[in-house]
Amino acid sequence: MKFPNLRKFIFEVIKEEQLDEKLITYGNRKPYGQVVFLAGGAGSGKGWAIDNFIDSAGFKVRDVDAMKSSIQKLNRLKKVSLNDILKKYGKNISPSDMEKIQLVKDKGVPFYKWDMRKPENVYALHTIVDAMGLKDKTLTALLAGKDNPEVLPNILFDITAKKVSSITEYMVELESAGYKPENIHLTWVLTNYNIALKNNKGRSRVVPEDILLGTHEGAANTVWGLVTKAMPKGMNGRVDVILNNPQHTVYYYDSQGNQLSGATKGFLSLPLKKAGGSILPEKLWKDTLFNWIKDNAPDTITANMK
């Protein structure tokens, strides 16, 4: 897909009745049986993309940040304690990470009051949630008893895609549950790394900058590798990239010309693959995607891309 006049394309006027056609949709909007892996480095605005750029109505969103909040809430309600969690799952935590958790714990602040604007607290909580295996447990619970393919819930995985394994680790369970490969999709939210850094500092959960860098490097390497080499076994749905920068988004405005909060009517995206089909011919997307990555991903990425 080439854009001879990119500015005109970006700022085209999209009529309100055409808005649904602009959204990225999956499986002809079937209310069951669809899986979306929404990839993007920390601070990429995936939540914004879910609300504004894709047809996410009816999807159960699996977000690790929500799991973290749930654990802290349970601690506040005195249903779980940090000591019990560490006693039970400490074997899944490396000695170096356990030392980092202990440094936060030694400050004496109750677990549920850990300030998520402090990167060291965010890292410690993320490590704890990983050690508990909550992502696997909650998926198993979600799919329990779903023997009929027509009642399989639509699921959206909010992931960084730092590693390919963040996708492939779920494939066996999804396939066993009855999800079809053509209904398992990938959408990458690509945001300028400098914008992501700024977004991160303004979030309620501040990710350590070295971790944030790793998620953006990882997402770019993962998606570029998948579309230029081979998709994971079991994933044969549509693949799209959303360029989530303010200058690439068309907003609604009121009669006074003020931008309406949370209201968008157009955005810039690049389709790479149709559901059930092969990757589109590279001449339609490869140069465009390479330049998007070059202009927006960390500088460490394109040096290793071919």
Secondary-structure arrangement, i.e. CATH architecture of the domain at 6-64 and 154-304: 3-Layer(aba) Sandwich
Mean pLDDT reading: 88
- Rg: 20 Å
Low-confidence stretches: 1-21
Keywords:
alpha/beta, 306 residues, globular, Rossmann fold, single chain, 7-stranded mixed beta sheet
Task: Characterize the structure shown.
The protein is of the alpha/beta class and 306 residues long. It has a domain at 6-64 and 154-304: P-loop containing nucleotide triphosphate hydrolases (Rossmann fold), CATH 3.40.50.300. The protein is built from 13 helices and seven strands. Strands 2-3-1-4-5-7-6 form a seven-stranded mixed sheet. The longest helix is centred in the C-terminal third of the chain and has 20 residues, at 209-228. The two termini are 19 Å apart. The relative contact order is 0.18.
